């Protein structure tokens, strides 16, 4: 069995400039994903897919490999996660290196936990899934979402207007930390999420999307809260 951790980290970032190498509580944010992958002892190869020399230098400094740079085609705003994974696995195949399992860990996921990566991997194998990734429940039932119609506020789904929150089916969203997958199956189906994917559920305190400076500060607070509780 051979596993690879792929950490996508291109140089361009519109909302937070140089996001992937910006310092988060004392070290580049990408370092957290690299260290989690290395310390999990799950991977034969931990690599960073980037088009940026500074990110490549940081990646190697923290123990990841950068055996090749990402193509211009997969370095723009329209490249998908699958596009990057496919390129990486195909480039390794040209070097006669293939992997049974691949895990795509996002570069801006400082709250990622080794135990969650391991939990997802076990579920992937035990349930013979194509991929497994972490999700978190929506904090409020999306069935009772509101929207504006001609400046008036209305329920999107009127049939749930009077339904109690506790009587509605829980819904979840992707937390944007990682995807653990069967490499061959994902390449064959050309998709990371398939009709045979599953998830592990995380607590909201361990999840934070980072798209702006406020998100960044919230992520730092959550990280410090977690580390503080960890010492108790």
From TrEMBL:
InterPro entries: CMP-NeuNAc_synthase, Cytidylyl_trans, Nucleotide-diphossugar_trans, PseF. GO terms for molecular function: N-acylneuraminate cytidylyltransferase activity. Its EC number is 2.7.7.81. Keywords: Nucleotidyltransferase, Transferase. It holds the Pfam family CTP_transf_3. It comes from the Bacteria. NCBIfam families: PseF. This is Pseudaminic acid cytidylyltransferase. The lineage of its organism: Bacteria, Pseudomonadati, Bacteroidota, Flavobacteriia, Flavobacteriales.
């Amino acid at each position: 069995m051979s596993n690879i951790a792929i950490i996508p980290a291109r140089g361009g970032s519109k909302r937070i400039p140089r996001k992937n190498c910006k310092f988060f509580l004392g070290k580049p944010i990408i370092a957290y994903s690299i260290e989690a992958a290395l310390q999990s002892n799950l991977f034969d190869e931990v690599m960073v897919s980037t088009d940026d020399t500074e990110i490549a230098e940081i990646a190697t400094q923290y123990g990841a490999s950068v055996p090749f740079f990402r193509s211009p085609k997969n370095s723009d705003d329209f490249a998908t996660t699958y596009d990057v994974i496919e390129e990486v696995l195909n480039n390794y195949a040209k070097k006669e290196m293939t992997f049974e399992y691949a895990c795509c860990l996002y570069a801006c996921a400082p709250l990622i936990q080794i135990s969650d990566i391991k939990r997802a991997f076990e579920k992937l194998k035990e349930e013979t899934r194509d991929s497994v990734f972490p999700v978190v429940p929506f904090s409020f039932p999306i069935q009772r979402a509101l929207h504006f119609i001609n400046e008036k506020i209305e329920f999107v789904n009127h049939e749930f207007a009077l339904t109690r929150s506790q009587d509605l089916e829980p819904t979840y969203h992707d937390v944007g930390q990682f995807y653990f997958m069967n490499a061959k199956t994902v390449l064959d189906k050309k998709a990371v999420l398939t009709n045979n994917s599953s998830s592990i559920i995380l607590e909201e305190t361990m999840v934070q999307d980072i798209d702006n400076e406020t998100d960044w500060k919230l992520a730092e607070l959550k990280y410090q809260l977690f580390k503080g509780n960890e010492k108790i």
